[in-house]
Design a protein that fits this description.
Layout lengths: L1 E7 L4 E6 L2 H9 L13 E3 L13 H6 L9 H16 L1 E4 L2 H9 L8 E3 L3 H9 L16
Length: 144
């Protein structure tokens, strides 16, 4: 495993793990990398300093090892909290998002917050028809 410091076109910095340098290159070429902050797909490797491991034992060594389950930045923590809040108050309608949003807008289904997946053309049609929708950066079929 290799950890890269990454930067998006909007100058957001974040880190991600890859199986190898070739894995990073393959995912980038396939357009499967996105910014952990804004969701942008124009992501490049950032300058990094190598980490040199020294032989330590006990609590100090464990305390210095970063936890992958903990947020790396205040922005990541804020995004995690926003995601938890939105998912707790929304119905996940999956691939039926566009149809369900239209039914809610037309009064054919109960008004409520929903999340799900929509093709770009479906989302554009909803916006063109005055139906309010917004993308959320973590709800993607592609994963980092």
């Amino acid at each position: 495993m290799i950890r890269y410091s990454l930067r998006c076109a909007d100058d957001h910095q974040f880190e991600s793990w890859f199986g190898s340098s070739a894995d990073f290159d393959r995912l980038k070429a396939a357009g499967m990398l996105s910014c952990a902050v804004c969701g942008g797909t124009d992501v490049e490797k950032d300058l990094m300093a190598p980490q040199v491991k020294t032989k330590k034992s006990g609590e100090n060594a464990a305390a210095e090892t970063p936890s992958l389950s903990e947020p790396a930045s205040p922005a990541e923590q804020a995004l995690r909290e926003l995601r938890k809040k939105i998912e707790s108050v929304s119905d996940n309608v999956g691939k039926e998002f566009a149809a369900e949003a239209r039914r809610i807008h037309n009064g054919e289904a109960p008004a409520r917050s929903i999340i799900g997946e929509a093709k770009p053309s479906e989302a554009k049609a909803l916006v063109d028809d005055g139906i309010p929708v917004a993308p959320i950066p973590w709800y993607r079929s592609k994963a980092n």
